[in-house]
Design brief:
This protein is an alpha+beta fold. The chain is built from 19 helices and 18 strands. A hairpin with a 3-residue loop joins strand 6 and strand 7.
């Protein structure tokens, strides 16, 4: 067989003649698939396949979408077995958009089918009401491409903070690659406030995958401000609306894929739809909301949070507790110098006392991904409420010694490391969103070095059910085979592991 690139070049030269036939022919040739094998795989007579490949006819429009999907799945599975997966992706220049090879091949076949229909004068799968700013798409590939183009165009073109409303189910949007689309949008100054619907009973039924996917979404989209609303009924379902830009109304099939959508870009119509969707979501219970700060006031949220004696922390941005006294002294001096205008020395001392009480009496499970520990040892950076601070190497060593000392004194404190795991969804690759929970309340904290000034650094969880789901998810990570836990019994092994690594990362000749 000729090399793949030669075949693809031939394909691109001849697609104007019969796009669908040439795409199908090239896929059959490259995967060395016989008509009879494909016929059996998609349950269609071999004579039909022969006519499609020879350009004598096209699949009937009412069956074309299913045929293209079945063929895409077959060719993707064949490519995987033959080790051709990456070659095909490179050869056809498939985008790195989070979709698998099956979807990309399905999209390729669907586009070729539409082109062949247009060449034959039989119309297209997209219809437009002229002058109305309304477009209808009726295949999965078209719906995906339409939304991707809308988000890319309008979010990359934002001149101020955008406002995006999504009334559909979180898992449906996730399955259709919406979060990956948002992640691929490039705007160096602005993102969006997103109001998103989520049905807690469905979320809980899909655990732990649902919590994992929510965490990945929030972690990868740090520059966005998400507000999650409980959706209890069917009103205003399945809409994605970007203020003053577009409305995307969609339907899903039995597999939760978007395969019919209506795109509206008329400014007045979009404005009215946006108002209705906002009015609907604003009266729904809030599950999670963005916050600029948890506050420093006495008896506020932070003080109440730390009245518990049982904690679970998944830390990705440093340890802002178990701090040595010299760090609190340094923070007090910086407050005197005016570096932290929102803080007071009284607040610093109060936090210091709270942490000493918790460390001495409380039950605490601390979890850290290995790559986050390495970054922390190298930079010494942490974020304490409204204060960013970078510890000197001596302070980092003092903190390590304090951790070891306190873990020996309080056997209810454990510190675990998540070692690297294979796979794109490895939990150890989450590096910018930390979780703090006490089993009755919880919040997420972002890495402030990776967000915009208008981005809120904290998510406050306000739903008991969501808090319980997230605790269960992180507890589950501690049962992974790559999790290594240290307690009073083996804490010296932790010191032996960290000390030489810290020496190398801080470029010191030897530990103190």
């Amino acid at each position: 067989a000729a090399p793949l690139m030669t075949k693809v070049t031939s394909l691109r030269r001849t697609m104007k003649m019969n796009a669908y036939a040439e795409v199908l022919k090239q896929l059959l040739q490259y995967t060395e698939t016989k008509y009879s094998v494909l016929s059996q795989a998609i349950d269609y007579d071999m004579s039909y396949i022969s006519k499609w490949v020879n350009g004598a006819r096209l699949p009937a429009s009412r069956h074309a979408d299913r045929i293209n999907e079945d063929m895409a799945r077959f060719f993707a599975e064949t490519a995987e077995k033959e080790g051709l997966h990456q070659d095909i992706e490179r050869a056809f220049s498939f985008a790195d958009d989070g979709q698998d090879l099956t979807f990309h091949l399905y999209d390729l076949l669907s586009r070729a089918y539409r082109q062949a229909l247009a060449q034959n004068g039989k119309g297209r799968s997209k219809s437009e009401t002229k002058g109305s700013g309304i477009q209808l798409y009726t295949t999965r590939a078209d719906c995906h491409t339409a939304l991707q183009q809308l988000l890319t165009e309008h979010i990359e073109g934002l001149q101020e903070q955008g406002s995006l409303v999504m009334t559909g189910q979180f898992h449906v949007l996730d399955q259709n690659g919406v979060w990956k689309m948002l992640e691929n949008c490039r705007n160096d100054h602005w993102s969006c406030n997103i109001n998103l619907g989520l049905k807690m009973d469905e979320f809980a039924a899909r655990m732990p995958q649902s919590a994992s996917r929510l965490y990945q979404c929030l972690d990868h989209l740090l520059t966005y401000n998400f507000t999650l609303h409980e959706i209890g009924h069917e009103a205003y379902r399945n809409m994605i609306v970007l203020k003053d830009a577009f409305a995307y109304c969609y339907y899903v099939d039995n597999d939760d894929y978007i395969d019919i959508c209506l795109v509206i870009t008329d400014r007045e119509q979009v404005r009215e739809i946006y108002k209705k969707c906002c009015a609907f979501l604003m009266v729904q219970p809030v599950l999670m909301e963005p916050r600029q700060s948890l506050g420093m006031e006495r008896f506020g949220y932070r003080d109440i949070f730390f009245t518990s004696n049982n904690y679970l922390f998944f830390l990705t941005n440093g340890l802002e507790f178990l701090l040595p006294d010299e760090v609190y002294d340094s923070l007090s001096r910086l407050i005197d110098a005016g570096q932290y205008p929102n803080a007071t020395k009284d607040w610093i001392r109060r936090i210091q006392c709270i942490w000493y009480r918790i460390i001495e009496q409380g039950r605490m499970k601390i979890m850290m991904p290995k790559n986050s520990i390495i970054r922390y040892l190298e930079t010494g950076s942490f974020y304490l409420t409204d204060m960013n601070y970078q510890m000197a190497p001596d302070e980092r060593r003092a903190q390590l010694n304090l951790i070891v000392e306190k873990m020996k004194q309080n056997r209810a404190i454990t510190l675990g490391i998540l070692l690297p795991a294979s796979g794109k969804s490895s939990y150890t690759n989450f590096t910018n969103l930390a979780f703090y929970g006490n089993y009755t309340s919880a919040f997420f904290k972002k890495n402030t070095h990776h967000i915009f000034p208008q981005t809120a650094p904290i998510y406050l969880l306000r739903s008991d059910s969501l808090i319980a789901c997230m605790h269960d998810f992180f507890e589950g990570l501690s049962r992974q085979p790559q999790y290594k836990e240290f307690s009073a019994d083996n804490v010296e092994a932790l010191r032996s592991l960290i000390t030489p690594l810290m020496t190398v990362l801080t470029e010191e000749d030897s530990p103190s």
